[in-house]
Amino acid sequence: MEMERLGREGSKPSVGPNTLLKAALAVCVCVCIALLIAVINLSHKASNSDFCLTPHCIENHVMISTCMHAEAGSGTTPFRIYPWLRQNVDLRLKELLEQPIGGDDIEAVKKAKVLYVSCMNECKNIVSASISRCYPIKRRGISLLSGICHATSNYSVIQLLQMFVFFHPRPRTVANYVLWRSVFSRITTLSRRFLYRYLDFARVTTGTTSLTPRWDKCVNYVENTLIYATGRLFVDKHFQEDKKHMMEELINGIRWAHAVLAKVGYPDFILNDTYINEDIKRLSFSETDYFGNVMQTLKFIAQSDIGWLRKTVPRTEWFTNPTTVNAFYSSSTNQIRFPAGELQKPFFWGLDYPRSLSYGAIGVIVVHELTHGFDDNGRKYDKDGNLDQWWSNSSITRFTEKTQCMIDQYNSYYWREAGLNGKGKRTLAENIADNGGMRESFRAYRRWIEKERSGVEEHLLPGVGLTNNQLFFLSYAHVCCNAYRPEAARHQIQSGAHSPPKYRVIGAMSNYEEFHKAFNCPETSILNRGTKSCRVW
């Protein structure tokens, strides 16, 4: 018995390294759990009044920490916010459009699903591509057209276009140009052999290296063609009504130009089945004739646009897709629009999150759009949207002097990705709106603290080491994040209305004294222009 107890070799078994490791790990786990419990208890007892420890605040902590560490570690922009949000909306629409047509679907939604199926159906295009385009003409025995068909098949359209020099734009030349632009705009609706030719063009102009996935292209087409049907799908499934109410509350707390009409989320009529069914009743799609569907919708859109000719456009009209990820100001109607697609994190945060994040993101965007009513173009329109010089000459002169400072500032920024300096004159309107948006939204946030919290600061986010004022500015910088290939960067500089994302942040923050105070920026910093700061509003 003793031998069995001591082991086969007659000695006590040794304690192996695996056993020691397991024991050590168990001790470490127990110690860590005990420390974690102690930290949580201490946090609740000693710091509960200072820190927000709700699940929503922890979510913010993770998001902000990830951004800060990614940027500090790699020196690159970690996220591309607008493309990511656009993709998020597209994926949701894809899921909705791919669901089989059900008995509960209204007629407009059924048509949207059929149009999507026809776009995704590439089989017919592949079969048709192998059949000569002259075949239907030959079959009908039309000799003249048959001859023209063969003649044009052997003629170089490219050489013909090269013969035209636009020094003397004759009506024929203008007509041909318009026709070409129409053809060019339809390339993305054709089969892959045409799309690969388009890719060669896009590779040079934007640096694109691959085709957009077919599903993504089809979602965008249906979304931009049947805007109210797809808007209805998205709103029913993915838009919470409290977002609309909170956004309206936010706008009312920020707005100083009360003549501006604000539109949030979606037009109410898209919830009216009869209205949106009637709107597209003339359209009848086939799952096997995508190009025919495209031509049908082009005609429908053109007729709808012409229908507004010589009519007074009511200010209640939207003219914006509810799924759009963007915000707008219209000078001619004096309205700002914030579609449902824009009201997502990290632009829009709900009531359960620190208000500093919302004011720094969607709050800045709200004031940005309001400020467009007073930029170098919007100032020319009165409160009713009429083109009218309602400013005095002295006001215009003073405005011009102030804007020159901003033009010079943004001209001085060199964008390494593009190899070019900014275009301060071209981007003036957006730069005015960026600067005014940040300044007035921050003031609105501080007013909210005074009014709603009696001057008591919001709880801090744990683990990030930032004040609420700092979080406001970080939230703005976060939503400006983007990344560009060199080709796209050059195109943005040469033709874009906005400054490069990096300098949208640096430009506005360097002009604002409250940012300098929040981060203790020295006057030698690129983020503190000091006495050289520019301000229009």
UniProtKB/TrEMBL annotation:
GO biological process, one term: protein processing
Cofactor annotation: Zn(2+)
Transmembrane segments: 20-42
Keyword entries, A-Z: Hydrolase, Membrane, Metal-binding, Metalloprotease, Protease, Transmembrane, Transmembrane helix, Zinc
Pfam families in alphabetical order: Peptidase_M13, Peptidase_M13_N
Source organism, top-level taxon: Eukaryota
Gene Ontology molecular function terms on file: metal ion binding; metalloendopeptidase activity
One Gene Ontology cellular component annotation held by this UniProt entry: plasma membrane
Span of domain Peptidase M13 C-terminal: 326-531
InterPro entries: MetalloPept_cat_dom_sf (IPR024079), Peptidase_M13 (IPR000718), Peptidase_M13_C (IPR018497), Peptidase_M13_dom_2 (IPR042089), Peptidase_M13_N (IPR008753)
Keyword Amino-acid biosynthesis listed: no
Domain Peptidase M13 N-terminal: start-end pairs: 171-257
Name of the featured protein: Metalloendopeptidase homolog PEX-like
Species: Sinocyclocheilus anshuiensis
Phylogenetic classification of the source organism: Eukaryota, Metazoa, Chordata, Craniata, Vertebrata
Name of the gene this protein is made from: LOC107663624
